Amino acid sequence: MNKLFFLSFLYCNAYGFENLTNKFIQVDEHGNKTNAKLKRINCLRKCLRLTNCMYVAFEFRDCSFFSSFESFKFFSPNEIDLYRKVESKRPNLVYYWVVQNAKIKEIMNKNDLYTPSNMFYTSDRFGKSNSSFHLDNGYVILPPIDKLDIAFTILAWVKLHSYKDNQRLLDFGNGERSDNIIISLSGLQTSLYFYIYHGSTKYSINSNLILPLFNWHHLGFVVTGGSSYIYLNGSLLLHKNHNVSNIIRKINRTKSYIGKSNWASNPNVDSEFDDIKIYNGVLTQYEIKDEYLSNFL
Ligand SMILES: *[C@@H]1O[C@H](CO)[C@@H](O)[C@H](O)[C@H]1NC(C)=O
Ligand SMILES: *[C@@H]1O[C@H](CO)[C@@H](O)[C@H](O)[C@H]1NC(C)=O
Ligand SMILES: *[C@@H]1O[C@H](CO)[C@@H](O)[C@H](O)[C@H]1NC(C)=O
Ligand SMILES: *[C@@H]1O[C@H](CO)[C@@H](O)[C@H](O)[C@H]1NC(C)=O
Ligand SMILES: *[C@@H]1O[C@H](CO)[C@@H](O)[C@H](O)[C@H]1NC(C)=O
Ligand SMILES: *[C@@H]1O[C@H](CO)[C@@H](O)[C@H](O)[C@H]1NC(C)=O
């Protein structure tokens, strides 16, 4: 069953399902259908109407619905066809910094990092050497971040080395209080937080989370409309509705950093990082959990 879980999914624009053994089928498929096939399609249609139905499993001619892969695994008969629901608007990976063999590359748009300060290559969470990077009270500069939509998802693996208030995972903006997207890792006064500035208006989520040091943790941050979310290791940690319809502007952010703040008084970061990914659009909690559990690029 594990094998199924680790298969990468095709990204499709249609509303439908993916056969987790790799065949995509659309619910509105035309043509002459056998009874078994018709029955199957009716099952999938029913799942589409249920917002909490994410997976459909078939055994002989019966189907069962599941809200998560975990619940399917709990049920988990051996030979079974499993389908996963595909939303019509798939999130689109726009920035992805990959570290390998002591090199870091942004593979989606060639937004490679530059002017590293106190940056070292180190082992990733699987123990593979030179496959993640350590900013030892350091930072790197990013090219202007100009491809972000007003709904996005940021994911990253982090391994904190010390607590410092306001140390940044990232700060994308145009200076202080200027359309910033800020993720700050644990300090002693300030726990992990996620701030968005709409111009100079701040929309914040402050967590109570003090990340344990010297351990890899997977973090997720989502903005959509007037809401923002923080995920830890694939589970929702916090959610806030900010009472406005939109908390962010689509704008070119020319002062964008990993590890460094747009506020000169803040310290540089002391942490290792890996697999920093930014998607336009919202990943569901199932997709974020998949990212947390996955062991492939
Ligand atoms: C799912 O895909 C596999 C591999 O392509 C195929 O053998 C199987 O018949 C498919 N199942 C259905 C229900 O389409
Ligand atoms: C569908 O297929 C069955 C058997 O293959 C055939 O008897 C029937 O006439 C077909 N129906 C249509 C509408 O083509
Ligand atoms: C890591 O990268 C450095 C710089 O390229 C190299 O000197 C070193 O041998 C590499 N270490 C391993 C274990 O691959
Ligand atoms: C997150 O998951 C990793 C294993 O993947 C674990 O080592 C770490 O302790 C978890 N972090 C928290 C805060 O639970
Ligand atoms: C949030 O919006 C509602 C409806 O517009 C309003 O009644 C309420 O006072 C607002 N709350 C805050 C904290 O602004
Ligand atoms: C963002 O700003 C940079 C630097 O001013 C510029 O080179 C780039 O073309 C801008 N991007 C867009 C989409 O305007």
Automatic annotation (TrEMBL):
Any Pfam family hit: Laminin_G_3
InterPro entries: ConA-like_dom_sf
Keyword line: Signal
Signal sequence residues: 1-16
Keyword Signal (UniProt): yes
SUPFAM superfamilies associated with the record: Concanavalin A-like lectins/glucanases (SSF49899)
Top-rank lineage group of the source organism: Eukaryota
Name of the protein this chain belongs to: Uncharacterized protein
Species the sequence originates in: Brachionus calyciflorus
